[in-house]
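Example A, followed by Example B.
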Amino acid sequence: MGISFFKKIFGGAAENIAEGTAPISVATDKKVPQPKLNAADFADQDKGDDSPVSLAGLEAFVLYVVQALVDEPDQVTLQTVEKNRINVIQIRCIKKDIGKIIGKSGKTISAIRALVSGAAGRTGLRVTVDVLD
């Protein structure tokens, strides 16, 4: 069904993709072998296991990202506190690294918060991230 749909839209190019060869560019029409993909390649992705995201896993993610951003990764510490049914992951680091975590106009910390709250929301947790002095 999917291949016939693409045949209608793209002509014979869908057959080339299904066969494992596709043109590099329209001008040369030179064929390059493409890796064959089958359902087994995506078996662990398609299982649909919505394994619960743990608070410890979210803390590990935040610690990994923050340590990659700062100059002194050994000085980064995390603490999780619960305030009004919301878990708050508090980041502490040396003063010169705070700006690297926050980012220009707060975009970096905003992105970290979005990723953490999105992952936590899948399991019904409410989690946010704060940077402390």
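Example B, a separate protein, is given below in the same form.
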Amino acid sequence: MNYEYIRFATLKVFKECNIHSFPINCLEILKHYNLSAHSYSSLSNELRNYCMSYSDDALNYKDKICYNDKQPFGRISFSLMHELGHILLHHNDNHNPKTEQEANIFASNMLAPRMAIHYAECKNQTDVVKLFGLTNEAAQYAFDDYRRWHRITVYQKMNSFDTAIYNHFYNENIKKFIYSIKKCVYCGEDILNSSDYICVKCSSPKHIYQVKQETDTQLLIAENQWLYGGI
């Protein structure tokens, strides 16, 4: 099995879909490749029963991917990327144990690249679940595989794929490997590599006091307008 070929297929998706943060948006990725996603619940009874008889998770037919929306979020994400793997790895309708394993490897590395696990300093499977949105089972596999990757990389240094992944997620402006980008809920500034949803500036005591003062003033104005007609 050509692991490097599979992993380079994930890098191709990261580049083409401009992915720089986890967890990834699987539906947006499918849309980029002109693949439509349909939940089992949205299908007719006859078609839904057919899909369920074929797979409890997902299946693809031409440019359509149908998925079981009754499954947990993490399992849905894995199933969608598994089906994308079949398509991008050109498995066509040749589904056998080998191609299923290849699609699993693709999905796992799409959802949680081993280098991202490393720079996020995940200590165990639970950390992987929290950051990448995987199921416990998928997170355990990814973390175990990360530890194998780390042991090899320590002795043999980074290979061409590792170097390419590093370069893709490396932010030249701040000189760091980026695995998470969020918007501050208050000011909209980017928050990098943090579990917080409020940036450092907005979480400072001075800023919080200022926001409180502005809110109190707005409430006082609204109260005056309501009670005294704006007088």
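On Example B: Residues 3-183 form one domain.
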